[in-house]
C-alpha cells in the first residue's frame, strides 16, 4: 500500500490541529488555575454553547465549502469563497441572538458583548481556515492558527500578570486573536471583496451537501458530549461541571490525532469516491493506522498514572487532583470513540451522511439516558461511565454501518475489489 501521499498530508494536518488543540488546552488550563471553580464552570458551559451554535455553520457551511471548493472550477472559486464568507457572517450574527438571550436569562448580561464578539470573529476565522484546508493548504493554515490559538494564551497570560483576568476580558482576547488570524488567512486565500456574488446558488449547493442529515448529525454528536456537563450543572451546580471540564481537558490532549485526521478524511474520501465505495475506503483507512500508535501510547500513559498527569497539569494543591477515576473512564471512552470518529468522517466524505446520523443518534440517546441515570448518584464518575457506554454503542453501530456500505458498494464496483 502506498502511504507516502497520506503521510505528507497527515503530517501537516496533524501539526495544524496540534497548534489548535494545544492553544485550546493551554487556555483552558490557565483559566482552571486562575478562575474560581464556579467561573470556570460557566466558561466551560459557555464554550460548549458556542460549539453547539457553531455546528450550524460547520454542517451547513464549513463542510460543504470544504467539499465544493475542491471540486469547483478554478474560475468559480473566488465567487464561491466570497459568498461563503458572507453567508458565515450572516449565520453567525443570527446564531448570536440566542447566545445573548441565554446569557441574559442566566443573569450574565456583562458577558453578552464579549461573547458575541468572540463568537462572530471565531466563525469568520474558521471560514478562512476551512478555505485553506479545502485546498490541502494545511501548512499555510498554521500561520493564522498560531496567531489565533497560542496567541489567545499569550493574551490571557498578560491579563493574568496585570491582575485583569476575568471571563469578559478573556472573551475579548479570544475575539482579538481570532480577528487578526482571519485577516491573515483571508490574505493567504487571496480573498477579494470586489466581484460577482452567488449567494442563492451557493446556499442551495451547500444545502445539497449538508442539509438536514448533516445538521442533525452534528447536533447529535454535540448532544452526546454536552448532556454530561449540563446534567452535572443542573444537579450539583457549575462547580461540578468545572470538575468534568478539568478531567476532559486531560483527555483532550488526544484531539490533534483525531480531529486533525477528521479534517482531512472527508476531502480524501470525496476525491476517491468516484472510483467506488471500496476504493474510497482503501484510500483513507491508512489514516486509522496512522492514528493508532499515538492514541494507544497516550491512553496507556494516562491510564497508568492519572494522578501524576493531573498534578503536572494543575499543580500541587489543586481542587482537581482527585479526578483520577473520571480521567481513566474518559480516556477509555475516547479510545473507543476515536475509530468511530474517523469512520464517521469517511461517511461524510462519500456522502453517506444518513448512515453517520444513525451512529450518532445511537450515541446521543445512550449518553442522555445514562447521564440522567448516573450523574445524580455518581457525579463525574457517572458522566464518565455514560460517555464510555455511549461510545461502545457507537463503535458497534459504525462497524455494522461500514460493513453494509462496503457490501453495497461491492455490488457496484465488484466484490474482488473489497477483498484486495
UniProtKB/TrEMBL annotation:
- Give compartment(s): Cell membrane
Chief location of this protein within or outside the cell:
membrane
Q: Which residues cross the membrane?
A: 12-35, 41-67, 79-97, 103-122, 197-215, 227-251, 286-309, 329-348, 355-373, 379-402
Topology relative to the membrane: Multi-pass membrane protein
Q: Tell me the domain of life.
A: Bacteria
The protein's UniProt keywords, in alphabetical order, are: Cell membrane, Membrane, Transmembrane, Transmembrane helix
User: PANTHER family of this UniProt entry?
Assistant: O-ANTIGEN TRANSPORTER-RELATED, PST FAMILY PREDICTED COLANIC ACID TRANSPORTER
| Name of the protein in question | Polysaccharide biosynthesis protein C-terminal domain-containing protein
Amino acid at each position: 500500500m502506498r502511504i507516502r501521499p497520506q503521510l505528507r498530508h497527515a503530517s501537516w494536518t496533524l501539526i495544524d490541529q496540534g497548534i489548535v488543540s494545544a492553544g485550546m488546552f493551554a487556555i483552558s488550563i490557565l483559566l482552571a488555575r486562575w478562575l474560581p471553580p464556579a467561573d470556570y464552570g460557566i466558561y466551560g458551559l459557555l464554550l460548549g454553547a458556542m460549539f453547539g451554535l457553531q455546528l450550524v455553520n460547520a454542517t451547513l457551511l464549513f463542510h460543504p465549502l470544504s467539499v465544493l471548493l475542491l471540486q469547483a472550477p478554478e474560475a468559480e472559486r473566488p465567487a464561491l469563497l466570497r459568498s461563503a464568507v458572507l453567508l458565515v457572517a450572516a449565520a453567525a450574527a443570527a446564531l448570536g441572538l440566542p447566545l445573548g438571550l441565554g446569557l441574559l436569562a442566566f443573569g450574565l448580561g456583562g458577558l453578552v458583548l464579549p461573547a458575541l464578539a468572540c463568537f462572530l470573529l471565531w466563525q469568520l476565522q474558521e471560514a478562512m481556515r476551512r478555505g485553506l484546508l479545502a485546498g490541502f493548504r494545511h501548512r499555510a493554515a498554521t500561520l493564522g492558527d498560531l496567531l489565533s490559538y497560542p496567541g489567545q494564551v499569550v493574551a490571557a497570560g498578560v491579563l493574568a500578570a496585570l491582575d485583569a483576568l476575568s471571563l469578559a476580558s478573556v472573551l475579548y482576547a479570544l475575539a482579538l486573536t481570532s480577528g487578526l488570524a482571519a485577516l491573515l488567512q483571508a490574505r493567504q486565500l487571496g480573498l477579494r471583496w470586489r466581484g460577482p456574488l452567488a449567494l442563492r446558488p451557493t446556499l442551495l449547493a451547500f444545502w445539497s451537501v449538508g442539509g438536514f442529515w448533516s445538521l442533525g448529525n452534528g447536533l447529535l454528536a454535540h448532544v452526546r458530549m454536552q448532556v454530561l456537563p449540563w446534567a452535572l450543572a443542573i444537579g450539583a451546580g457549575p462547580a461540578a461541571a468545572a470538575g468534568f471540564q478539568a478531567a476532559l481537558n486531560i483527555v483532550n490532549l488526544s484531539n490533534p490525532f483525531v480531529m486533525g485526521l477528521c479534517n482531512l478524511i472527508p476531502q480524501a474520501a470525496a476525491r476517491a469516491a468516484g472510483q467506488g465505495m471500496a476504493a474510497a475506503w482503501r484510500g483513507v483507512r491508512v489514516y486509522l493506522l496512522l492514528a493508532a500508535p499515538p492514541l494507544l501510547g497516550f491512553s496507556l500513559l494516562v491510564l497508568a498514572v492519572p494522578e501524576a498527569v493531573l498534578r503536572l497539569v494543575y499543580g500541587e494543591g489543586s481542587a482537581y487532583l482527585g479526578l483520577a477515576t473520571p480521567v481513566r473512564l474518559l480516556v477509555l471512552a475516547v479510545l473507543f470513540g476515536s475509530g468511530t470518529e474517523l469512520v464517521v468522517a469517511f461517511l461524510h466524505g462519500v456522502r453517506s451522511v444518513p448512515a453517520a446520523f444513525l451512529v450518532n443518534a445511537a450515541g446521543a440517546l445512550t449518553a442522555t439516558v445514562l447521564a440522567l441515570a448516573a450523574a445524580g448518584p455518581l457525579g463525574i464518575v457517572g458522566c464518565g461511565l455514560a460517555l464510555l457506554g455511549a461510545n461502545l454503542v457507537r463503535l458497534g453501530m459504525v462497524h455494522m454501518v461500514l460493513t453494509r456500505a462496503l457490501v453495497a458498494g461491492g455490488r457496484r464496483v465488484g466484490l474482488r475489489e473489497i477483498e484486495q
